[in-house]
Amino acid sequence: MKRETSFCIAAALLLASWVSLSAQELGYWRPASKTAQSITGEIAISDAKLSINFYNFNIVRARDLEPAEVSSVFDTDSAASQKGHLYGLSIPATKKFLHKTTLCGTEDTRWMVAYSDGNSLQLAFFSGARAPVFTVDAIQNSTSLCGTFNYVR
Asked: Which stretch is the leader sequence (predicted)?
């Protein structure tokens, strides 16, 4: 009986750790960068929604990003084991947030990259119908990168 209980507890802990590792960006976040403080304020991310300033937007996880792809967008270690995630979304250019600001100026926001490491989260928003290309050169020359934002728990 003890063996079965121990096995069940171990399996539950393993499953819980896998779920938390695969979705570290989920939850409530406070702005840590000036960009996040002046445009979005506090945000929340769930499996299907992004909440910015009490507005909810549907999101769809498009794919995982390898560490090298994440480091093309954010200042991260490309040899790290932590992956980022690319999400598809649709935030109209007419949607105003804090101080009457928008995420992508006059263009609709179509993509979001999320990378979390412990209690910090980095987001990048992109416009354009096609998914961004995640190489250093492509990101440096991108006209679709709207901005990067930093958050903490």
From this structure: 1-23
